Amino acid sequence: MSETFPRLLFALAASKPREVALLEKHYGIWQELTWGEYAARVRDFAHGLSTLGVERDDVVGILGDNRPEWLVSELAAQSLGAAVVGVYPTSIGEELVHILARARVRVVVAEDQEQVDKLLRLEDRLPALERIVYSDPRGLQDYQDPRLRAFTEVEMHGRAQAKARPGWLDERIAGGRPSDPAVVCATSGTTDSPKLAILSHANLLTMAAHLHHIDPFRPGARYVSFLPLAWVGEQMLAVACGLAHGITVFFPEDSDTQRSDLREVGPDVMFSPPPIWEQMLSSVQSRIGNAGWFKRRILGWAYGVGETMAACRARGQKPAAGLWAAHAMADLIALRHVRDQLGLLRIRRCYTGGAPLSPDVFHFFHAIGVKLKQVYGQTEICGLAVCHRDDDVRDHTVGAPIPETEVRLAEDGEILLRSASVFGGYLHDPEATAKVVDPDGWLHTGDSGYFEGHHLVVIDRSSDVLRIPDGSPFSSSFIENKIKVSPYVEEAVAFHGAGGITAIVCLEPGTTGAWAEQARIGYTTYSDLATKSEIGELLAEEIARANLDLPPAVAVRRFVLLHKPLDPDDDEITRTRKVRRSVIASRYRDILAALDRGDESVAIKTTVRYQDGSEVERSIVLPIHTPLAPEQLTGRRRRPVWSAA
């Protein structure tokens, strides 16, 4: 691999300068940026960064939502031989300090006033921070801090610098090495504070080449970038694959328009973690649950046909002519309309990764005609090492290794990975690096798994693997995913205690609130809704259904509906919505103890923070529920996976 991101960009600008590279929706209108314009902005901003003192081997911070300015900043820094570290736009306080201080960042590109204010409030804790460049000037006109610079101002100075030093930047780009650090990505931090993984141009572009080998990307393929660019998955698709294969990247207007923008664009490629696919299913469940009986009957028939067709393909069988005809009719009158509502009508390549996806959710997308594939990897191997193939998809596996990637199991079942995409180490932390990459280049993932033929099955983090009475390994994530198939559940965390398997469950407020309104159950707040006896009864049936798909030894015995959603600002989940199990276990130990004892309820104290900054401590009594017994489900119709009714 001899290329770098900047060299790929300028090659694309030279070969197709007028073709569209990036589009951003602004005030309802898609604003285009061609490859030629993209490269020109990178050139200007790179010269501008050099006037701010950015040099080779520096790390430039980027803080904000996905915008063209993010990619311009990233490619400009890399053109100078520097790397970038992205920070999730929702990060606050300690998270910002942890990343920016550890990376020794001197220059941060921040999106707007909100992000600038966060940095200015941390002035005493970020003494190395010399410059803050903001791309959205609204609200910042009267700020007098000497460290502030407008993005357009930096570009203007860059243009002047380019005239004074013709050819200077071209030499820097030509001198860039594929082994140079390109991106510093924070790990998920589910078990510890996030570490900063160094990913080189070669690491990322090798991964992109290997993915292209099994799933070729056509030039100009559409990709909607709505997941944070600080996440390795977005760097993997939007940046590495985008530059390697000339993909067109769309940026939605804001979080409120993501769903409608996705439908308007109709992407060819999509990669998202399980929560996004679960939310899509929930939106279908809610919509169909509120539809009339005729529409439900039609979709039920069409879904059944789609499910049969998907199962036939998964077994490698040729569908009978009757099934082909029925499926064509089902797709015409129902299934394609579901895909259209989700923005997946034109999808050609779609992946899920970052955490396990429930087989029920996986089956749903295949039944409606979306060929969703699971991938497995970690930040330390550029997010991808194992992937399903088009003609070899199994719901409970993550597929087979991608080309030039080795996978083996340690004696204790730990998954080990080795390829050219294995990272260059953790930034300024050689001891942590030595713990995960051995002298032979094997990446120790910390995950347990096993092979089923040539397919890899991931069980869970080794520290979270359960053992059922016969000694077989079992995943708490599998239990949680079975519970989360319910449209009324947003998050679930399962624990193994003296009283068997128990769970802390968070409601999905939209669908649960709609159910409560239809049932004429009044409520005021999320906490009030979670403590309603009728809601407890509803979830008791939902979790009983989940238990039917679990071995009796790991069926959920008791559960509690938490009074609040899990919040990344409280360190309960990561910014990519992975549960921090140790934090949950510590923070809610009184709840877990009550669940283990078999108590009927548990009293907890919680702090309510109001918008004016005031706080009030309240005491809440949470009922403890028991799922229905299997015999209690007799005569109760099972809710279809596609409906909340």
Automatic annotation (TrEMBL):
Top-level taxon of the source organism: Bacteria
SUPFAM superfamilies: Acetyl-CoA synthetase-like
Domain AMP-dependent synthetase/ligase: 13-427
Gene3D superfamilies recorded: N-terminal domain of ligase-like
InterPro entries for this protein: AMP-dep_synth/lig_dom, ANL_N_sf
Keywords for the protein's UniProt record, in alphabetical order: Fatty acid metabolism, Ligase, Lipid metabolism
Pfam family, one: AMP-binding
Name of protein: AMP-binding protein
UniProt organism field: Pendulispora albinea
